[in-house]
Design a protein that fits this description.
CATH class of the largest domain: Mainly Alpha
CATH topology of the largest domain: Endonuclease III, domain 1
Shape: globular
Strand content: under 5%
Oligomer: single chain
Number of strands: 0
Number of domains: 2
Radius of gyration: 18 Å
CATH superfamily of the largest domain: Hypothetical protein, domain 2
Order of helices and strands: HHHHHHHHHHHH
Number of helices: 12
Structural class: mainly alpha
DNA sequence: AACCAGGACGTGA
DNA sequence: TCACGTCATGGT
């Protein structure tokens, strides 16, 4: 029996409302369809062929480390700094002076920790030799937690695995599909059980969640204005999607 | 001018 | 396991 669950209905609604998001952004990308506007550039809506090169994969991994607990505009500054140094490639990062690296990524804050994270991840990345890592391998790296590992897999390595972030928690606990303190892997499973693995869908869903949350789920926003809340939260808490 | 941002880790109960 | 504290800059 084919059943359309709320997890799927919500994806369809977000997709219709906001359109394709074009994640993961690449700072230098100037494609034929850069429809995102504003200061934050680099998105490529409708183009799922990226990343095309090893250095683009690496840039996405760097971005997922640098964006931890920080807004994307700050990450873009850091990546732009690195770009000017011709440093968005593993060899340059590994040979680069620590203080130069710290200075370049300063806009994202936590630069002592993040410098270490970048260095340690980069050693691992080189050791891959083009191979796709497992989730457990990524999680064994200092500074790579579940969200970061899943982001790297989904957007850099093109593995259809679902990414859960703070916004996912906020939206779906508000609606009542999950509990706010459910474990990361439990929430991830809810999405993966309701949507058969598909790279483009998983990439878009996470990106759409972020887009939607920025509008209705920032800390001071009124969540009751969220149209999803009106539509899906009426019956109280429902499980299984 | 506080407050928060697309987390992860270390610590003590 | 759980609940905090820490890390640090920059944008509303």
């Amino acid at each position: 029996m084919l059943q359309i669950t709320n997890v799927i209905r919500i994806f369809n609604l977000l997709e219709t409302t906001y359109g394709p998001q074009g994640w993961w952004p690449l700072v230098d990308y100037r494609g034929s369809n850069p429809t995102k506007t504003g200061s934050v550039q680099g998105y490529h809506p409708g183009d799922y062929s990226l990343p095309k090169t090893t250095n683009q994969m690496y840039e996405i991994c760097l971005g997922s480390l640098l964006t931890q607990s920080v807004g994307w505009p700050s990450v873009e500054k850091a990546l732009t700094n690195l770009k000017k140094l011709n440093a968005i490639n593993p060899r340059t990062i590994l040979s680069m002076d620590e203080n130069v690296l710290k200075e370049a990524i300063k806009p994202v804050g936590y630069f002592n920790q993040k410098t270490r994270k970048v260095k340690e991840f980069t050693k691992f990345f080189v050791g891959l030799n083009g191979r796709t890592p497992t989730r457990d391998e990524l999680l064994s790296i200092w500074g790579v937690g579940k969200e970061t590992a899943d982001s790297m897999l989904l957007y850099a390595f093109k593995v259809p695995t679902f990414v859960v972030d703070a916004y996912t928690r906020r939206i779906f606990s508000h609606i009542g599909l999950i509990d706010e303190k459910d474990e990361y892997d439990e929430i991830k499973a809810l999405f993966e059980e309701n949507i058969t693995p598909d790279l483009e869908t998983y990439q878009e869903y996470h990106a759409l969640i972020v887009e939607h949350a920025k509008r209705f789920y920032s800390k001071q926003a009124d969540r009751k204005l969220c149209p999803l809340y009106k539509k899906f939260a009426k019956g109280g808490r429902k499980r299984k999607g």
